[in-house]
Amino acid sequence: MPSKSKKSSKVNSKAVMEEIKNLALVGAGVVAGSVGGRMVDKVLKVDPAQQGFNAKAMVRPALLIGVGAFGAMKAKNHMMRMLAAGVGASGVLSGIKALTKKDLLSGPDGGGLGSSWPTSVYREPLNMSVERYNPDLPMLSAGPLSDAYGEAVPMADELEAVEII
Question: What residues have CB less than 8 Å from 8, skipping those under 6 apart?
Answer without folding.
Answer: none
